[in-house]
Amino acid sequence: MAEAAQQKVASAAADEVAVELSGVHKWYGSFHVLKDINLTVYARERIVICGPSGSGKSTMIRCINRLEEHQRGKIVVDGIELTNDIKKIDEIRREVGMVFQHFNLFPHLTVLQNLTLAPIWVRKQSKAEAERTAMHYLERVKIPEQAAKFPGQLSGGQQQRVAIARSLCMNPKIMLFDEPTSALDPEMIAEVLDVMVELAEEGMTMLCVTHEMGFARRVADRVIFMDEGQIIEQNAPETFFNNPQHERTKLFLSQILGH
Amino acid sequence: MAMDDVVTPRYAPGQHPALPAPASTVGVVGWLRANLFSTGPDTSLTLVPFGVAFLAAAWFGGVSIMGSIVIGILIAVGVRIVARVAFGNPVIDNTVLTIVGAIIIFLIADVLLNFTIFDAVWSASGRADCAKSPDGACWGFVTARFSQFMYGFYPDAERWRVDVTGIFAIALIVPILFGQGRIRAYAVGLFLLAFPIVGFILMYGGLGLEIVPTNKWGGMMLTLVIAMTGITASLPLGVLLALGRRSDMPAIRNLCIVFIEFWRGVPLITVLFMASVMFPLFLPEGVTFNQLLRALIGVALFSAAYMAEVVRGGLQAIPKGQYEAASAMGLSYWKSMRLIVLPQALTIVIPGIVNSFIALFKDTTLVLIIGLFDFLGTIQTGLNDNAWAAPNVPMTGYVFAALVYWAFCFGMSRYSVRLERKLNTGRQH
Ligand SMILES: Nc1ncnc2c1ncn2[C@@H]1O[C@H](COP(=O)(O)OP(=O)(O)OP(=O)(O)O)[C@@H](O)[C@H]1O
Ligand SMILES: [Mg+2]
Description:
CATH architecture of one domain in chain B: Orthogonal Bundle
Number of helices of chain B: 17
Helix content of chain B: over 70%
Distance between the termini of chain A: 56 Å
Bound molecules: adenosine-5'-triphosphate, magnesium ion
Distance between the termini of chain B: 42 Å
Structural class of chain A: alpha/beta
Oligomer: heterodimer
Largest sheet of chain A: 6 strands, mixed
CATH topology of one domain in chain B: MetI-like fold
Radius of gyration of chain B: 30 Å
Strand content of chain A: 15-25%
Structural class of chain B: mainly alpha
CATH superfamily of one domain in chain B: MetI-like
Helix content of chain A: 40-55%
Order of helices and strands of chain A: HEEEHEEHEHHHEHEHEEHH
Shape of chain B: flat
Order of helices and strands of chain B: HHHHHHHHHHHHHHHHH
Largest interface: A-B, 27 and 22 residues
Largest sheet of chain B: none
Strand order of the largest sheet of chain A: 6-7-8-3-9-10
Radius of gyration of chain A: 19 Å
Shape of chain A: globular
């Protein structure tokens, strides 16, 4: 009886919507960047977003935590609709972590301070508690020994792992990644991807803009292809890579897989 | 030079140890050896003309020792220049410039030391004593007037109150400048909240202390009151104005722009004049507004406008990614400014901030024109005193003023260098 109930909860959770974009449009001045974006992301789903440069991938995921404002349509994150209400924006940002292409660590703070800042000031945790959590996540990204250093003293791969740990310290429900490996040298890409794969395997809801197709094949539940501000195609990685439907997808895939 | 003649031992590939640099290439000695004394003839080409000229000047010309040294060096350099032109002697190059520079410094030091020390009158009771050595400073004037330079017309019996305020100020400023963590935070809090009230009551009076009206305040005490108020008010005000100027809200932004551009557009001297002459016209009959307070407000707002632009420069240097990372973590606007953006922006513009502080410190001298007697003002008043009307007294007064202002400004400058170095440790990108 109890077991059946639990199963029910679990399957309900599986259908739980984490992020929903419906009919979203955005303009930069007169330039129409996002055109009628419709996308539903379920809890624990791993989504990879790809597409040519300038297609609006960054803009789309930045709308999800309101780093960019959309002008038409509706965005609901974790059950909260994004409006101009600052309280709701803050509520969403507490639950949504973001990792940037250029890490954006705070250079005037040590690694540990980078990690504990938001838990202390936003989540109101005690310093000791925040530091405990921070060390836990630093161990998970395998650089606990760097805690006392400043970001400028770390390699790119280490900095990006710190950035991931920094987001995780807020215990987010959803993680957004915007080309997390494209500013890194090849040997550092692997160490960052390993961390992301682990995170995916633990069931984190992830939206990830990346051109690492190996990563997409391995962990994505769905791959989304964008071009000129539209979602052109979305499919499970198997179908997406082996049997792309749209001409533009084929062209794009031939370009990035071709060489 | 003959470096090629040195026999270098050979090592197998990969076995070459790091060797110390040859002593002759390092330091002052190395430079002198390379440029003036590299060979026997070279050395004599330097020393012989110097010696001859020195002896000639000192013995036969009756020139002082210092003067003779200068003449000796000049002649020696002259000989070397001639040698270079005539024989293509390669040694000179930068040497000439360096030596000429050294001579100029030497001559200036000579004049300064003679005036301030060797020819100075150390104790004097009036112009007659000062006139005994008209080529030197008359420090007796400064010592006789010293307490007025410090306190202005503040009553003798009450001056201990100024001293106590000064001790409080130092007790708070030292931990602010050199302390750390919690101690420093407490000191800042006390300095901003408690100290102004305590200091005002101590110096102005009330609570049983005799009232000393501000027109009796003067000298270094007044200079420091104006400078410290200006400095402590202008930094936070400037930060707020700079943030306002970058605000998304047009009303706030425009207000800040108008404010900054207004104050930057008028000379401080005009501001002070308006504060003292025009401002009372706008007040209702019988309402008075303290002269010193007007000057303080004028100086603070004026410096805040400059400070705002310095701080804005720092804000612009912070990459957009920093703001985005802070927002993405859920930090509010004020928290991300306080914790992320301002600490970085202010660190970048420390030289500019200190520059403004130094300018402000020196600009306090302008309050003289609205009838406040600051440090420089009390010195000038002293110069008008007939009892001290000797030819060397004005120079003494101004040299003393310059030394004191220089010491304060140089102190600020050194502190900023120290602070920059401390903040930059380990933080380079
Ligand atoms: N702040 C802005 N103002 C005006 N136009 C912008 C702005 N940001 C982006 N754009 C434009 O919007 C379009 C989409 O940009 P976006 O950064 O979302 O692309 P992207 O798909 O992430 O590309 P990339 O792979 O190069 O990162 C581009 O044409 C870009 O020039
Ligand atoms: Mg992008």
